[in-house]
Amino acid sequence: MMDLLPVLLVNGVVFGAIYGINAIGLGIVYNTTGIINFAQGDFVMLGGMTAAYFYGHVGLPLPLAIVFGVISTVIIGLLIERIVIRPLWRRGAKDWTYVFMLFAVATVLPNLAMLGIGRDPLTFPSFGGLPSVQLGTATLSSQALWVLVVTVVVVVALQGFFDRTLLGKAMKATAINPRVAAWLGIPVERMVAMSFGLAALLSAIGGVVFTPLISTQFDTGVAMTLNGFAAAIIGGMGNIRGAIVGGLVIGVLQSLSTAFISSVYGDAVIYGVLFVLLIIWPAGFFRPLIELQHEEI
Asked: Nearest Cα to 151, choosing from 231, 269, 80, 63?
C-alpha cells in the first residue's frame, strides 16, 4: 500500500487545487457580501457540463466550447445575483434569508442542468500541449499539469487584480467596509454583482480544466461546495493563498483516507481533522480579509 503513496499524494494535490479555486470563489463572495454561497460548487459543475455540451452536442471546436461554457456559467452567476441576491440586499434581509435562498438555488441548478443537458456523466478530450511529468513512481498527466498551471495563473492574476487595479481595489474596499466604500462613491451593488460573476468565472475555469480528468455530471456540485467551503475555512475565509493551502489539505486528506481507511469514512476523517485544526487555529491558517472590518469600524 505504501507504494501507492506518491500516486495518492499527486491525486490529492490535483483535486485539492480545484477545491482551492472553488474556495477562492466562496471567499470573494463572502468578503464582499458576508454571504456564504452554497451554490458555489454548482458553478464548477456548470462550467464542465456546458463546455462538454457545446463540444459533444453542438459540435463546436474544443477551445470555443470551453469559452462558451465559461461565459454561460458567468452569465448564470450574474443572473443569480440580479434575481435572487440584489432584491434581498436592497431590503436589508437577514443572513438566514440568503442561506435559504442559496440552498434553493443549489437545489434548482442541478435539476435544470439534468433537464437541459442530461443526467449522464460528460467529458471532453484533454487539452494537450503539456508533457506528462514523472514524479518517482507517480505520473502527473498532461491534464493534471494543466490543473496545476491554471491554479497558479489564477492565484497570481487575482493577487495582481486586487492589489494593482482600480476595480480590484474597489472590491477590496467594499469587502473591508461597504458603508465607507459607498461614502467614497464606490458602487457597492455593482461590486456585489462582480463578486458573483468573478466567483462563477473561477469555478467555471476549475470545472473545464478538471472535467477531462474524471468527467462531470449534474449532481457533483454539492461535494464541490462542501470541500471548497472546508478549504476556505482552513485557509482563512477570503484569503487567496490560504484557500489554495486549505484545498491542498482537503485533497490530500481525502486521497489518503480513501486509500488507507475507507471511502465510507473518508468524509468523517476529513471533517474530524478540520475540527482539530479549527480548535488550534480558529481563524484558519491565514488571516481572513473580513477581520479588517472590525479594525475599521
From this structure: 231
Instruction: Give the Cα separation of 163 and 174 in Å (integer).
Output: 14
For range 161-180, the mean pLDDT: 83
Q: What is the CATH number of the domain that holds 247?
A: 1.10.3470
Cell numbers given for 67: 469559452
Q: Residue 259 class from Cβ within 10 Å (0-12 exposed, 13-18 middle, 19+ buried)? A: middle
Average confidence (pLDDT) over 182-187: 88
Strands 138-140, 133-135: pairing is antiparallel
pLDDT band, very low/low/confident/very high, at 291 (cuts 50, 70, 90)? low
Exposed (0-12), middle (13-18) or buried (19+): which is 109, by Cβ within 10 Å?
buried
Question: Which residues have C-beta within 8 Å of that of residue 276, sequence separation ≥ 6?
Answer: none
Name the domain count of the chain: 1
Contact status, residue 8 vs residue 255, Cβ threshold 8 Å: yes
Q: Is there a contact between 251 and 210 (Cβ–Cβ < 8 Å)?
A: no
Residue 35, pLDDT > 80, answer yes
For residue 1, the tally of other CB atoms under 10 A from its CB is 7
Q: Is 63 helix (H, G, I), strand (E, B) or coil?
A: helix
Helices (H), 117-220: 142-164, 166-176, 178-183, 188-214
Alpha carbon of 286 to those of 105, 209, 245: distances in Å? 30, 27, 9
pLDDT of residue 75: 96
Q: CA 73, CA 69: separation in Å to the nearest integer?
A: 6
Query: The domain containing residue 51 runs over which residues?
Result: 2-296
- Quick one: the chain helix, strand, coil %, rounded to 5? 75, 5, 20
